Each structure stands twice: as structure tokens, then as C-alpha cells.
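So, can you check these C-alpha cells?
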Amino acid sequence: MTTGREKTLDTVDPTTPNVPRMYDYLLGGKDNYAADREAVEEVVRHAPDTPFLARENRAFLRRAVRFLAESGIRQFIDIGSGLPTQGNVHEIAHEIDPSAHVVYVDIEPVVLAHGRALLGGTPEVTVIQGDARRTDDILDDPELNKLIDFDRPVAVLMLAVLHFIGDRDDPPGIVARLRSAMAPGSYLAVSHVTADFDADSRVRDAGAVYKRATYQITLRSREQITRLFDGFDLVEPGLTTLSMWRPDPGSSLPARADRQWCYAGVARRPG
């Protein structure tokens, strides 16, 4: 769930709220510090449904990866993967095909340390250090290229990542560069926060807490987020809110599911 300035593996600052550790706390994890917990608690005071939406984002990831694997995708790149938790991409993909290849990409040292410890005995999966703003470095990484064949369809996941990249770094341009490396039949999955339904400014106030965290949030409209999918064809049901994207059969939708403050979508590169 992270992007940002370059760091080394031994750089850990427990005093600055850290976005992956904050997300870990939201999901009930233990890999976080007091500064992370305090920041999350302030976010929740402004927007009490934040923990619920964090869980919904993970649920969207699970449904999206399952859809992609059932659609024949056997290669996955999870950019801004965040700390390992239940229902990781490789676990879901391997339920469909144990030979599926997965590369996790994150810049945060805490993510890399935990990911490498977790994945030590899984040759089909690796974790690399990478900044989402530096797509060429990610695409050229030798560890990634051991597992990913860009002549074949691949799924690129950017869940809760692009809202941590400011406009000056050109998120549509970042996605376009990735798209240019993806074979026809590849897929892009994105989730992104929005203020479209923020009538009482609670989302804006919650987002302001991140000004003192490792990465800041840029809220974008549905139109701006749709631009991220230029060159792709959105699959049904298109760009919608987290809970509304292909809910599991028999599941019940939460109240106001169509007005959540996070959009989600999956799209296919035609050809």
C-alpha cells in the first residue's frame, strides 16, 4: 500500500506514522508502533468507517485475484503490496493454480523484511523493493523478470496505492508506462479513495492526518480515477465502490454500499 522516497532495508522510523503499518493496524495486525496506532485512531475519529473499508479493500483484492485467476491469468505483480496479512495474492491465486507466479513490490523496509521471511520457501513468489513512481526500475528488476514473462498476459494490482502519489508525479502516466509493458489480455486492478460522497468533510479531515505520515493522500474524483484506466477496457460492473464490485454470491451488501469513499475497478488490455 505504499509508494514514496527511497529507503534502505535497515531504515525503520517508529516515531513517524507509517502507511503500511497504519494499514496493518486497521486490519488488526501487530506489526505497528504507537505512532501508527495514534494516527489511525485520529483517522477513525474523523471517519469511523475506516476500519470497515480497510477490510473491504482486502475483500476486493480477494475477489479480484480470484476473478483474474479464473480468467486464466497466471502472473501477478502487486505494486504497493503492504505488510503480509491473511488472503495474500499468492494464496488466492494458488487456490486456482499452484504454479502461478506472484511478485510483491514495495519500498518499505518493514514490508520487505516480513515478506522475505514469509516467502522464503515459495519459489513461485518473490518480493522486491520498488517505488511505484519509478516504473522502469520495477519493470527492469532482475528478480521480477525471473518470474514474469511480459510476452504473456499479466495482472498488475495497484490497490490503495495511487492516492499516495501526487498529481505532480502523474499517476495516469505511471499506469500508461506499465500498460506499455503489458501484453494484450493483461489486466489492471485499482482501488482509490475519493471525496465524491464527502458531504460533511469527514474524508478530507481523515486524509489530512496523513500529512504527518510517511505518505500523503490525494483524493480524486470518479472522472480522475477513470482516467487511470485509459487504454484498458473495464470489466463488469465497471468502476464502482469496493463492496459493489462483484460481491460474493449470497453475500449481503452493507448500507450505502454505492456511496463508499473508495472506488474499485478491474480492466483488461484489449488485443
Q: What stands out?
A: The radius of gyration is 17 Å. The first strand starts at residue 75 and ends at 79. The beta strands are 75-79, 101-106, 125-129, 155-159, 187-193, 233-234, 240-241, 262-268. The chain is about 35% helix and 15% strand.
